[in-house]
Amino acid sequence: MFREFACAVFLAAVMAVGPTLGLADTAPAPDPAAPAPASAPTGDPTPAAQSRFRLLMIEQTGCVYCRMWNHDLGPIYPKTPEGQIAPLERADLHKPMPEGVTLTGGKAIYTPTFVLLDNGTEIARIEGYASEDFFWGLLGQALQKAGADLPDPAQ
């Protein structure tokens, strides 16, 4: 009971302070069906076509934690070893999942939910976003468990 109360208080505080920190959801989430920005390279196959792994980010408009992830990690994710191994794909919580995606852990309830896919089938799931450290640690463990060839973090 106390845990639920503490979570509710924390969420209320984040939502109250979020706009002053630039975390307000003033823009809609990017439309995955929209054409790529003009600055995106063309002609080369996308990393998703080259990898058996994908990271599906299930999000929804108004989600402050989605906004935090987009602010903290969104710009750098594609440049990281994890982003090269498991390119990011986005899905809206309230819309059907992309074609070819099989969720073995059931329908996502919380946003953001990150689903690691191996050839379109869920093999791991991260629910929520607390911080960069937790995200990278959990994603790294999931990729290593799946047999992905990640560089040694000590290098």
List the helices and strands and how they pair.
Elements: H1 2-17, H2 47-50, E1 53-59, H3 64-72, H4 81-85, E2 88-92, E3 113-118, E4 121-127, H5 132-145
Parallel strand pairs: 1-2
Antiparallel strand pairs: 1-3, 3-4
The whole-number mean of residue pLDDT values reads 78
The CATH H-level superfamily of the domain at 24-30 and 47-145 is Glutaredoxin
User: Helical segment tally?
Assistant: 5
What fold name stands as the CATH topology of the domain at 24-30 and 47-145? Glutaredoxin
CATH C-level class of the domain at 24-30 and 47-145: Alpha Beta
**Low-pLDDT ranges:** 5-29, 32-48
Helix content, binned percent: 25-40%
Task: Return the structural class.
Answer: alpha+beta
Characterization of the model:
β3 (113-118) and β4 (121-127) form a beta hairpin. This protein has a four-stranded mixed sheet, with helices on one face. It has a domain at 24-30 and 47-145: Glutaredoxin (3-Layer(aba) Sandwich), CATH 3.40.30. The longest helix is centred in the first third of the chain and has 16 residues, at 2-17. It contains five helices and four strands; from the N terminus they run ααβααβββα. It has helices at residues 2-17, 47-50, 64-72, 81-85, 132-145; strands at residues 53-59, 88-92, 113-118, 121-127. The radius of gyration is 16 Å and the shape is globular. The model is unreliable at 5-29 and 32-48 (pLDDT under 50). It is of the alpha+beta class and 155 residues long.
